[in-house]
Design brief:
With 403 residues, this protein is α+β, with helices and mostly antiparallel strands. It has seven helices and 16 strands. The chain has helices at 5-17, 29-37, 44-50, 54-82, 210-223, 226-229, 253-257; strands at 177-179, 182-184, 191-201, 232-234, 239-241, 245-250, 269-278, 283-292, 294-299, 302-306, 324-326, 332-340, 345-354, 370-371, 373-374, 398-402. The strands form two sheets. Strands 1, 2, 3, 4, 5, 7, 9, 10, 12, 15 and 16 form an eleven-stranded mixed sheet that branches. Strands 6, 8, 11, 13 and 14 form a five-stranded antiparallel sheet that branches.
């Protein structure tokens, strides 16, 4: 009842005893709570930066650029090695002798040779032995012999458009460069060498009597009369040699060096060098050397040395010449003849020994002589495995080419 204190108390107790109804969650409340528990998604760049990866990424980019540059350099280097580089001769007037340096690298492919069996050779261990030339049956000068199998020594040629003077007048058929037999280009830097083919006449008629040719050579080694060689075929190109020093090579290399490999078979040919020289100082000297098949030297008007396998001059056929007094500043005529008879292979080495000089010795105890050379250009570089190529002294004994 209104105004009754008990009724007020009851109402209050009823209110307190009435259970509270839970309030229903709003839609999406649980989803928002779960999302609140999960960290916010971050981009790749932010995650890398958070992990300190900014420097890592920069390092990756730098390394990638370096790899690309390295690959480009390797490709350019490989291509450059495949290119053929040719060195032209210096123009006329640019200097001679020591101002000219030409090097050559040869590739001897001896393991692939299919040469016919070589003729039996007579050898001796005695330094005073005399070797006589055996009889050789006649043969057809036009028959095929050893094929051209060693390349690279005399096959270089270059363009002549940028050359001047004497070098520019060289026929393109012979080209320019160093060969084992001299410098191509008829330049005045050494002894002038001429190749003769003793298997054919001057008019290119085949000759079938090699014994006659050998007899002519023996006569030539006595008096060095050019008329004796005049009846044989002569290559029109000449080489300029500063030394006689090359290992065992295919006999085809000489005709190839002179540009006549299609006309001259690799046997019974000779190269005749001639010129004038001045010794570097006063002294007493002698020639030394050996060759397959011929190596004969005429100095100051007389034959002084015959060091080939086959004899041309019995009076001087030794491994060394007699002692020869020389004067600095004096001009001496010199002629050198090298060549091959049966063919197949050829080599020649000519040295000079100075009297009373102490020489270094090689592994076998043999003295290491000085090369006979004109000018200070280095010899061609032959493969280390080359045969018949003795060491030479690095102490130069350089003769000067006289005019």
């Amino acid at each position: 009842m209104p105004g009754d204190p008990d009724s007020k108390s009851l109402s209050s107790n009823e209110k307190r005893s009435t259970p509270l109804r839970p309030t229903a969650p709003k839609a999406g409340a649980f989803r928002n709570a779960d999302q609140a528990k999960k960290p916010a998604r971050r981009g790749l760049w932010k995650r890398i930066r958070t992990a300190g990866g900014e420097f890592f990424l920069v390092s990756v980019i730098v390394h990638a650029v370096l790899l690309l540059l390295a690959a480009f350099w390797v490709v350019q280097t490989v291509q450059a090695k495949r290119r053929l580089n040719f060195t032209s001769a210096p123009p006329s007037g640019a200097g001679r002798g020591s101002q000219i340096e030409h090097r050559v690298q040869t590739a001897l492919r001896s393991q692939n040779m299919s040469a016919p069996p070589a003729s039996n050779r007579i050898t001796s261990t005695s330094s005073n032995a005399k070797v006589s030339l055996p009889d050789v049956p006649s043969f057809n000068a036009t028959s095929s012999a050893l094929p051209n199998q060693i390349a690279g020594i005399a096959g270089t040629s270059v363009s002549f458009s940028s050359m001047a003077g004497k070098a520019a007048m060289i026929p393109p058929s012979i080209g320019m460069g160093i060969t084992a037999f001299g410098f191509r280009g008829a330049m005045d830097i050494g002894l002038q060498g001429t190749l003769y083919d003793l298997k054919q006449s001057a008019s290119k008629e085949p000759l079938s009597n090699p014994s006659q040719a050998v007899d002519d050579l023996k006569t030539f080694a006595k008096n060095w009369d050019p008329a004796i060689l005049g009846k044989y075929y002569r290559a029109k190109n000449t080489l300029s040699a500063q030394r006689i020093y090359f290992p065992e090579l295919s006999a085809v290399e000489a005709p190839r060096a002179f540009g006549v490999e299609s006309e001259v078979k690799p046997s019974l040919w000779i190269v005749h060098y001639r010129g004038k020289v001045t010794p570097p100082r006063n002294g007493t000297f002698r020639f030394r050397g050996f060759a397959d098949d011929w190596l004969t030297v005429r100095f100051d008007g007389k034959t002084v040395f015959d060091g080939g396998l086959f004899v041309l001059d019995p009076d001087t056929h030794e491994t060394k010449s007699t002692w020869i007094p020389m004067q600095a500043g004096k001009t001496y005529e010199i002629e050198i003849l090298i060549g091959t008879y049966p063919g197949s292979m050829v080599y020649a080495n000519l040295f000079v020994e100075e009297k009373n000089r102490v020489y270094e010795k090689d592994e076998s105890g043999e003295p290491i002589w000085q090369l006979f050379q004109i000018g200070k250009t280095e010899p061609p570089k032959f493969p280390p495995e080359s045969r018949r190529l003795p060491k030479y002294s690095k102490e130069e004994l350089v003769f000067r080419l006289a005019r």
